[in-house]
Amino acid sequence: MLNFTYDIPTRIHFGRGEIKALSGELETCAKKVLVVTGQGSVKRNGIFNDVVREIKKAGIPFVELTGIKPNPRLKSVYRGIEICKAEGVDFILAVGGGSVIDASKAIAAGAKYKNDVWDFFTKDVVCTEAVPLGAVLTLAATGSEMNSYGVITKEDTERKLAFGTPLVRPVFSILDPEYTYTVNKYHTSAGIVDIMVHIFEEYFSAPPTAVVQDRIAEALLKVCIKYGPIACKKPKDYEARANILWAGTLALNGLLGNGKSGDWASHGIEHEISAIYDITHGVGLGIIVPNWMKVVLSKNTLDKFVEFGINVWDVDKDKGKEKIANIAIEKTRDFFTALGVPSKLSAVSVPQDRFRDMAKGAIESYGQVGSFKKLSEEDIVKILTFSL
Amino acid sequence: MLNFTYDIPTRIHFGRGEIKALSGELETCAKKVLVVTGQGSVKRNGIFNDVVREIKKAGIPFVELTGIKPNPRLKSVYRGIEICKAEGVDFILAVGGGSVIDASKAIAAGAKYKNDVWDFFTKDVVCTEAVPLGAVLTLAATGSEMNSYGVITKEDTERKLAFGTPLVRPVFSILDPEYTYTVNKYHTSAGIVDIMVHIFEEYFSAPPTAVVQDRIAEALLKVCIKYGPIACKKPKDYEARANILWAGTLALNGLLGNGKSGDWASHGIEHEISAIYDITHGVGLGIIVPNWMKVVLSKNTLDKFVEFGINVWDVDKDKGKEKIANIAIEKTRDFFTALGVPSKLSAVSVPQDRFRDMAKGAIESYGQVGSFKKLSEEDIVKILTFSL
Question: Using the beta-carbon criterion (under 8 Å), do A7 and B6 form an inter-chain contact?
Fold first, then answer.
């Protein structure tokens, strides 16, 4: 196990009706709130009304930023920063999924920075101050509700990059499984894939001696495998929605990653795709990951895939190691397919003509792509080609 | 899954050499420190020297309270409170295991309370202020390093009771696996049993729908089962010590208990025993728990024991349910025995003559003993008699 600092102070209010905690939270830390939302679903399904009721209960004025898109754009971040500065906002409340929370984090950092917020993504600039923020989560997927990271796309240059600072970790997040009831099957599935890939990125990484983390990773994967299909079939199954929601938060709050090196190659590659083609993040990951597994499976990585096969997919221990590893990879692919997410890039209208650019772009953005196996440009092209 | 608030702000510095974080932590929050230690082991093995070096690096004066015993006594808590008041202590640093940390928590609460600190244990008094504290952990067992609870014994009345408030949750804890290298086999084993029983108290409780929590509980149990025997045989095995240390912290920081009801009957019974006979907490738990399992196994609880048998002890799924449950209980007992902890109360000189008093005492102290199965006085006497 590597040394680590575990410092996860986000307060989580989890469960049915927990929106009631919002007014109390805001009373302690906000004088003027910017409420950030996505493309209108929270206004249609009543969640926004619940939020407004609580803000009013706290007696705090608020302004709005609406229309944050999936793969949130830098342009909307700039808009949010302007509002914060013009309106004297001292607290940001993200009401939505990962895109809304990530955009809110960039706004939070940018509102207290005198230069261009994009510096945090592209330059070695340390964020020293940010507007505090909280979240009301409406989609099980991101993990952003309890971590320090955000991903933003700069459309004109086709770059999708991450930044992180503990200053943008939400002070609190409200997780009501019922708030995810109206998420459609497509996005429910994509969210589950996203959660599982977050776990993979941490699970398939050195050192093999962080066994607490790896056994917990397997535990959360089993929750996704058990409840994913149920949530897709019965969108109002509280038990399924609750377990997936909590698994998604724990998958990327540091619990699995602390003490390990992390891989993050699949995310690096997917960001290159969705920066250009604007596909759903979880869908892109679901297409890439089984092929990433195929490419990184080698003598050096075999034992980890065997562990994965036996502990997660219940593959018979007595089969040979290579067989176990390959079965595990195919079971992963089959599970994603059964959830109903597209399994080919061609199915989401991503052609092969820019694969080489994407491979170069990933290496340019991340310096090194992957640590479980460091990927070459050729490896990335191969993964993308297998994914076609 | 029950609704819950997850709010665990303790910062953990985990790994070899992490004592180096101490001076920085103290600089931000302490002007005068009370260092609380146990019966001298930290002075013999060099940990105390490391701590003093860091305090001096921070340039902060400190005073000492030494001699905290296992099953920490109220008397020593009073002594600590006096020192805090007399010396103007504004930060408490516990250097030791659960007893030292628990005593420090009671001192922290008592130093800011105008009446008797024992009120927090026996009356419906809410703690509103406490001296902040941190911990340098030297034993994998307690969980106290990352939670809000403490247990203290009032010798003259033979009562051992718990109290809790978020105000005594350590601000930070330093967990260096190498600091547990010198723990002898007996206390290493007892610590591992303590960790496992903390997990059982949460795992064997309603509702069965908190599956994230239960899969993680099984993950941590597997870590104990894998590394417990290794840590006993090879006390300087970093991997074993690290995984057990981190499992012990996660076992009782809220991760497993949030969203569940908890049982805590075994702890209730053990506290009655050790309040009178001063036995090692983990040893008492290890003797009681398999017999608690025997007594609570019924048609209502069978499925949970089956899950336990299959997921934790790899019992063959195809055996009948009752057989799986009983095998799981015997495997638990055998594991504790193989670790070398005593398996009978008679082996630790606890006679049966006060079993009835203990049963009454547990019910008096806790109102209800157990929730997985609510135990009657007869049930408790039966568990104790089986444990003889």
Answer: no
